[in-house]
Amino acid sequence: MTETPEDGSTGDRTTLHRPTAQVADAAPATAAEQTRPPALSTEPAAAPEPEPEPETSPAVEPAEPEPTQPTPTDPERSAPEPTEPEVADPVTDTPPTAQLAQPETAEGLPATADAAPSANGTTPTRAGAPVPTPAAVASVVQEHPPPAAPVETVTAAGTDHAQWGRVDDDGTVWVRTSTGERSVGSYPGATADEALAYFVRKFEEIEGQITLLEQRIRAGGVSPKDADTSITNLRDGITAAHAVGDLDALTARVDGLVVQVREQRKQADASRAAARRAAVVVKERIVSEAESLSTSTDWKRTGDRLRALLDEWKSAARLDRKTDDALWKRFSHARTAFDKHRRAHFAELDTQRASAAEDKEKLIREAEELSSSTDWGPTARRYRDLMTQWKARGRARRDVEDELWARFRAAQDTFFTARNEVFSARDADLAVNLQKKQALLEEAERLVPVSDVRAARNALRSIHDRWEAAGHVPRDDKDAVEGRLRKVDDAVRGAEEAEWKRSNPEARARAEATVNQLQSSIASLDKEAAAATEAGQLDKATKAQEAAAARREWLAEAQRTLAEFS
To answer: Burial letters for 537-561: b for 16+ Cβ neighbours within 10 Å, e otherwise?
Structure first.
């Protein structure tokens, strides 16, 4: 029996292995080969395999029967496996006879070759590779007998996967499936339990891959597309698996994963559809707001808001190309329209600012010409006019405006500084004048109340003459002192008017005439009332008496007026 691994497996438990075994009668070997020691005879005998087998120490895989046509030799499989241990087989301490029959490589490990049994049952090998004889194989097996106790093939869960397989007398391992039995390979030089245990481990490797994929699908750690690819690979691997166990159960679990993936795909599609609908709402809102802002003239705030809307657009989910492009065109058009309006506005503003700068240059030239004037009043009024024109011209560009204003302000300051210096010197003289006028005010205020109108008028006339001679007072004090003098003038004028009323002869004559007329009227009414009473005309007497009473009141007032002229 010879074993030639077909797949070149390195013992990686994450991939499916498809070992093949070349079962044939061995050809007679040369005498040198019969006496040659095993390739790894210098290594200590390995202990019986622990259970479960460590994943870092894979065994040399047995091979399954292949078609009768020879398989080409793979150069890579002639080299030592990088992860294979240097011990021959962890199941027994006897290396597989296929390794004993092949030459050693440079590293001391046996080189392998792919071969298939021929029609007459012989196993072709590579050119030049000696074939061991049955006697050589028997001697090696006797040197390294298998362990006494077979390896258990029951998993941690208590499942006996070995019940799904059997081993023929010739060492061929079979697995039972729903479609019947099929050969999965052979393990030369080992017991039936050891051979089954090896192929059970292959089954458990596939089962572990399915469990891992189930966990990843449940956790959402794999996309539906990648899950479909993994499921297809697992299903293909189960169909051609060189393993012993309930392969139909693994197929059912894989089919269950198909249902889970289909449901996850539906959920993912629904989530994407909901996300697209939400993204449409978000982008429609962004576009609508941008369109409403496209005619805004609040340039700073609107520009900031449009930039914020662009950031929101970038963070929103993408839609289908047609919808996304249509919304983007609207959004871009709104932003472009606003930008055009803003550019046009600022272009016009630049024109206005340039014109304002030219006009202000003219105002500055006039202001600089007036800065040396000593015609204080008219020049100060002209500067006020220039300031009014300056404000009406609008603003130039910020940097230009600041420079122009500095020049205009400097011209004004030059003039008003010179005027203030002159006015300061003048104010010193005005302070003396103020003291004089305050003394005149005290003298004038002593004339009130007026007792002698003629004397008061003469004294006030003298005060006015000296007031004018005193000259100007400070501007801030002028209204106060003139107001005090005005009150004295009013008091004297009132006294004069009262005196005139008392000494007016025409008014006195009118008052006397009024008194005489009223007295005559009252006497006449009294006589009329007496005559009416004697005649028994009571109504006429009453009316006469009432008229006389009214005239007596008038008479009293006229007499008081006449008394004022006495």
So the answer is: eeeebeebbebbeebeeebeebeeb
pLDDT, tens digit, for every residue of 306-327?
999 999 999 988 888 999 999 9
Compute and round to an integer the Cα radius of gyration of the chain. Answer: 66
Spatial strand order of the sheet with 180-186 comes to 165-167, 172-177, 180-186
As a whole number of angstroms, the distance between CA 346 and CA 342 comes to: 6
Single-letter amino acid code for the residue at 204: E
* Sign of the alpha-carbon torsion through 511, 516, 521, 523: positive
The CA distances from residue 195 to 116, 170, 317, in Å, are 20, 12, 57
Cα–Cα distance measured from residue 558 to residue 552, given in angstroms and rounded to the nearest whole number: 10
Contacts of 449 (CB under 8 A, 6+ apart): 491
Instruction: Determine the 3-state secondary structure of 424 from DSSP.
Output: helix
132 upstream amide cis, omega within 30 of 0: no
- The answer to whether 107 touches 80, Cβ cutoff 8 Å, is yes
Which secondary-structure segment (H or E) carries 520?
A: helix 505-534
**CA distances for 234 relative to 64, 165, 184, 332, angstroms:** 20, 20, 17, 50
What is the average pLDDT across 455-462? Answer: 88
Q: Are 404 and 364 in contact (CB under 8 A)?
A: yes
- pTM, two decimal places: 0.37
The alpha carbon dihedral of 7, 11, 16, 18 has a sign of positive
**Residue pLDDT, tens place only, 366-418:** 999 999 998 988 999 999 999 999 999 888 888 888 999 999 999 999 999 99
At 125, list the tokens: 């090998």
Query: Which residue type, as a one-letter code, is found at position 6?
Result: E
Question: How many helices and strands, by DSSP H and E, does the chain display?
Answer: 14, 3
Alpha-carbon distances of 429 from 113, 417, 468, 470, 471, rounded to whole Å: 131, 19, 15, 10, 9
Residue type, 97: T
- Tell me: cis bond preceding 449? Omega within 30 of 0 counts: yes
Q: How far apart are CA 547 and CA 385, in angstroms?
A: 73
* Residues sharing a CB contact under 8 Å with residue 310, sequence separation 6 or more, in sequence order: 335
Name the one residue in this structure whose structure tokens are 């030369």: 188
165-167 and 180-186 strand pairing: unpaired
